[in-house]
Amino acid sequence: MFKITRKPKYEFVSRTSSNLDSVRLLRGPYKGVVYTYGKVSITGNEPNYILNFTFVVENGIIGKTKAELSESVKFKTYIGDLLTEILSDDQRQIGNGNNENNTQEADSGRRILPSNDAPSEG
């Protein structure tokens, strides 16, 4: 019997310039891109939920600048699908009620923004 092992699509990375963790893409068409999710909200009613989110591209890759990625519908769809996976796979509750320093901290240690903020570039 063969065991199929899949490489992860992403990893969370900490940046010294931000209290928020960013995402580094490890494979696929955007391999190497680092970006940060901002405000994330879910609207609509079951079964037609809509995932809304903001993001900031921290660095582009050869052939795709930060500006190009920020405006790309394909890129936004790609990271939106990934966000859906992250939210579906994470068994811990994001936002455990600890709201110090105007951020929420997930049980996993990842920091996310309150729903009324967006990440700052810097």
State the gist of this model.
This protein has 122 residues and is α+β, with helices and mostly antiparallel strands.
Q: How does this structure look, described?
A:
By secondary structure, the chain is an alpha+beta fold. The protein has one domain (10-91, 100-112). 19% of the residues lie in helices and 28% in strands. It has a four-stranded antiparallel sheet. Strands 5-6 form a two-stranded antiparallel ribbon. The N and C termini lie far apart (49 Å). The model is unreliable at 91-118 (pLDDT under 50).
Q: How much helix is in the residues?
A: 10-25%
- Distance N to C terminus: 49 Å
**Rg of Cα set:** 15 Å
Largest sheet: 4 strands, antiparallel
Shape: globular
**Could you give the order of the helices and strands?**
EEEEHHEE
Structural class: alpha+beta
Count of individual beta strands:
6
Counting H and I runs of at least 4 residues, what is the number of helices? 2
Counted up, domains total 1
Strand content: 25-35%
- Poorly predicted runs are 91-118
Q: What is the average of the pLDDT values? A: 77
Strand order of the biggest β-sheet: 1-2-3-4
Fold topology:
Blueprint lengths: L9 E5 L6 E5 L8 E10 L6 E10 L6 H6 L1 H17 L14 E2 L5 E2 L10
Task: List the keywords.
122 residues, alpha+beta, four-stranded antiparallel beta sheet, two-stranded antiparallel sheet, 2 helices, 6 strands, 19% helix, globular
